[in-house]
Amino acid sequence: MMFTTFLLLSFTGWGLKYAYADPSSAWITIWGGAKTAGIIHRTAGIIMLLDFLYHQFYLLNLWRKKDLRLTVVPMPKDVVDFFQNVAYYVGLSKKKANFGKFSYMQKFDYWAVYWGMFIIGTSGLFLAFPVMASYVFPTWSISWAWDVLFIMHSDEALLAIVFILFFHFYNEHLRSDVFPMNYMWLTGKMPIEELKHKHPAEYEYLYGDKGKK
Q1: Residue 168: CA atoms inside 13 Å, Cβ hemisphere, count?
Q2: Is residue 19 part of a domain?
Q3: Domain of 25, in residue numbers
């Protein structure tokens, strides 16, 4: 759901931002023109927000059942892991970082969504419902508030697109050991040997002495 809506928002958003400039003017016609692209963009944005809210309720339910592990929360160990990996890749250490369920890169991936949803989601709601949003801003700020919202929305979205294309896609799908893709995003499962190799601390947590036999 997040994957599909992100693509729709990226494709239509880019076209809408430069709807009257080549080559975006040709691109926007593929989506039925600016009006239709705007409807698709707003619909995808609302679905993404609902998906994000669903995830929060999912976490709350895990917490209620006392099944919530704080494995995705940044910890001091992540800083240690970062420098351990740097030492490994420059040849100063023979050991890679001992990752738990999530590496520091994956945690950054996860929390970047929260930052993006706050900036892009909030500004997007204001831009999608300008009449309602106008009641929020004092009259003296109207002349520049919309410019700020537009910059927040479009520039943060551009940053998200660049981050996904060059950081997330490489780390999760384009590295030589997972190319052409990491199938976990489809199955939700990781082979035992891969878990043992990439997330040894999590392997130890799950299997302990049993896993060593």
Answers
A1: 17
A2: yes
A3: 1-68
